[in-house]
Each structure stands twice: as C-alpha cells, then as structure tokens.
Amino acid sequence: MCQVQGVYQLALRLKSRAGKTHEMLQALRSVMLPAEFEVGYLSCRLYSEADEPDSLCYEEEWSTEEDLEREIRSIRFGRLLAVMETATGSPTVEVRLIAERRGWDYIHLVRSSSHRLHRNGDVN
Known about the structure:
Layout: E1 7-15, H1 21-35, E2 41-48, E3 55-62, H2 65-72, H3 75-85, E4 88-98, H4 104-112
Antiparallel strand pairs: 1-3, 1-4, 2-3
Helix pairs in contact: 1-3
C-alpha cells in the first residue's frame, strides 16, 4: 500500500433539531475531548456557521490514515455516529487528505520573490 504523507481530516457538517443546538454541542464536545489522548491525534474543532447557527461543523485531524481508520472503528467514533443520528437531515461527511500546509514563511517567500504584481496587474 502506498503511504501518502499529510494530515487526514474527518469533517462533519450537521444540523441540530430546533432548540437542541446547545445539547448537540455538548454531545459533540463529550466525543471530541477523549480524542486528544489517542495515538495520532493532531487537532479537533467544533464551530457553528455564522449565518446558520443550527448548522454545526466538526473536524478531527489525524497524522496517518491508519490512525484515522483506528478511530473510525473505535467506541468513541460509535458515540459520534450516535450524535449524528440525532441531526436533522443527513449529515455531510468528508474524509480529506491535506497533503501540505504552508504558513508565514511561504507568504514571505512569495512576497519577496521577483514575481510580484505591479499596481497595474502586470507580472515582472
């Protein structure tokens, strides 16, 4: 099996039932906190959409595909599935491979290169 380097991200988007957003947030937090102690865990985020407060986004990041697969088979993930079943409609689920991340060093490199845009939009 070819091993791809990167970050494996599990991304969920789900909509809570009317008046149940707080309960769903609590349930998702109870699932996300134990993930911090698992092998290969990198990060987890939970947030709501500004224009749709009942739409919740939940993301986990894992260092390898094997780590993510182990989590998908875990009891903790079963609890996450149970929370997803309480959502209105079908939740959106995506597994993403983020092959590369760049930060300020990349921004600095691009801005300091000789290929800058002039005010008129031409490239030199």
